Amino acid sequence: MTRSDLVARLAERFSQLTQRDAEFAVKTILDAMSEALAKGHRIEIRGFGSFSINRRPPRMGRNPRSGEQVLIPEKLVPHFKPGKALREGVDQAATLAPQTDPSSAPNEPKPN
Predict the structure, then answer these.
(1) Boundaries of every domain in the chain
(2) pTM: predicted TM-score of the whole model, two decimal places
(3) Which of 50, 62, 64, 67 satisfies CB 3.0 to 4.6 Å to 44 for a cystine?
């Protein structure tokens, strides 16, 4: 689902909201979440999951072209941990849906 899909579904579900209002609501929520994470806060949405910041310590890496060592600085990256209700809901929906494994599909000949 993309951001525009979310806006469309919100506008569809709540008829009193225009497309523009739904877009503003989604933008406001995402901006508030981004600001909170940038300040180092943790976000918890009951039944959905939590967002937090993980610290990746500095490390030595290698430049793939020259092979020389390069210091990779510390990074702070967002991390999402799904809540129990979300995990169970996804698992239940996955077991009810027909299983399609692309690796088990027969290989089709390539066009020449």
Answers:
(1) 1-41
(2) 0.71
(3) 50
